[in-house]
Write a structure and sequence with these properties.
It is a single chain. This protein is α/β, with parallel strands linked by helices. It is built from ten helices and 13 strands. The protein has two domains: 167 residues, Thiolase/Chalcone synthase (Peroxisomal Thiolase, Chain A, domain 1, 3-Layer(aba) Sandwich); 146 residues, Thiolase/Chalcone synthase (Peroxisomal Thiolase, Chain A, domain 1). The protein is 32% helix and 24% strand. Helix 3 crosses helix 4 and helix 7 packs parallel to helix 8. The mean pLDDT is 92.
Length: 318
Amino acid sequence: MKVIGTGSYLPDCIITNEALTGMVDTSDEWIQSRTGIKERRVSCGEENTQFAIKAARRAVENSGLKPDDIGIIIVATATSDYVTPSVACFVQEALNIPKAIAFDINAACAGFVYALNTAYCYLNSGMAENALIIGSETLSKITDYSDRGTCVLFADASGAVVVRRKSKHEFVSELGADGTKNQVIHCKQRPISNCIIKNECRIDYLHMNGREVYKFVVKEIPALITRVIEKSDIKIGDVKYFILHQANKRMNEIIAKNLGLSFDKFPCNLERTGNTSAASVPVLLDEVNRKGMLSRGDYIVICSFGAGMTWGASLLRW
């Protein structure tokens, strides 16, 4: 499987660290020293669906394909605007892709890697030749701006890639989940209420046990990346870039250190984007692509982790 197009969209509204000091007990120094974030983008009224459409359109244009060439649309999101239908169906309509199957998946911050692997399985089955994969989130609508442990992190964005079935392009992956850690990051957004049960509880916000996330990531993610590379025919030094989920710069620095690698191999845009969940990997990949940082034949590893807990890593050849 080969990536043939990338695209992304970030909203215009910027919330700086200084702005957050007026909402919660924090400071620019406190936020940067613990997360690496200087500012984050949030929706100015646009819906997640609009984000996804804009990123998808840019990725398809970058690929050079026509809408009829796309056979699969998968959107990874935890913040869909509708209970149903899927964001993917709105993308299908907006981009006029009549022949594609379309659906969403929710694997939180690991969603894009899950979606990429799902597309790989569909393409390998012969169901389609090309797939459009989108990670899109409006986390600001489920963020509690009175909780300094989460409001300094989360943001809104959308990223997309177009991939083509290629038998000669190496693709090695590992996905995982541990449902016993389902309370480490969670959001019980919709109170249960029906004709029998009346629930007056307010809509919930994201809750996160940052200490548990940190312990999990610094131990498990370097081991995950190592296993994926060991399944391939290359060595870790052959990888040009590691495109990690932009959750926390300090965690990513430790991942690089535990792998024995220079952080130069780990592109980072977290300081400008914040944590955008399923969007973070495709947004960063689009930035790397459009800056001309990749050449044909380069190996990259994409890796993400999030609520569930869920995680995944994939080795691709550009």
